[in-house]
Amino acid sequence: MRDKLTMLDQLLHYAQTNYLDLFGLVIGLVYLYLEFTAKKAMWIASIIMAALYIYIFYQSQLYAMSIVYCYFFIASIHGWLKWNEHKTVTILRMPQRQIGQISFFIFTACITIYLLLKGFTINEEEITMGDTIATALSVVAIWMAAKFWAEQWCLLIPANLITAALLLNQGDYASSALFMIYFIVSIFGLRHWIKLANQAQS
């Protein structure tokens, strides 16, 4: 009985001291569901989540990640406005001619984020590189999502897998498991959005 109480006390203490992280977790799961189902409300969840993590990372003195989430905040507002220009959401396939532009954006994002991380954080090189790639892919993916492109999931799939591996390496097993869920859902999300795009074209 005493062990159960001790465990309950630990859970309550964790909830009290990490309530913002737990709230971010809930919002993240809500966002993932809304994104999977291609609902406009996904952008509201994204705005809230970005604002929350700007604060969390700033308070943790992780200024580079705080700056990155400022981008996500602005991009989410842009996505909300773009999606609300249409009465109904129509998922599209990305034109093949955009591959070069997307590649350039990813390359540019990688350089910018790498310099931010090197300037504001102290990590091993492989951690910095992994974080750079995962974040750059996510940065470009949210821009693609604003354009209704199903292929945005093609960037989120490796981004979530890399993030899960990084968190596992750092011993954050709970967050690693969460991003493995994101990774799996992203695979089904790609299939679902391609299906929606094909239905819209038929």
Please compute the radius of gyration using only Cα atoms.
18 Å
Note the main sheet: none
Structural class: mainly alpha
Helix amount, in percent?
Answer: over 70%
Number of helical elements? 8
Distance N to C terminus: 62 Å
Number of strands: 0
The general outline is globular
In terms of DSSP E residues, the strand content is: under 5%
The average pLDDT is 87
* Low-confidence spans: none
| SSE ordering | HHHHHHHH
Describe this structure in words.
With 202 residues, this protein is mainly α. The protein is 81% helix and 0% strand. Helix 3 (42-59) runs antiparallel to helix 4 (63-83).
Task: Provide tags for this entry.
8 helices, 202 residues, 0% strand, mainly alpha, 81% helix, single chain
Give a short summary of the structure:
Helices cover 81% and strands 0% of the residues. With 202 residues, it is mainly alpha-helical.
Please render the helix and strand layout as text.
Blueprint: H1 2-17, H2 19-36, H3 42-59, H4 63-83, H5 99-120, H6 125-146, H7 152-169, H8 173-201
Helix pairs in contact: 2-3, 3-4, 4-5, 4-6, 5-6, 6-7, 7-8
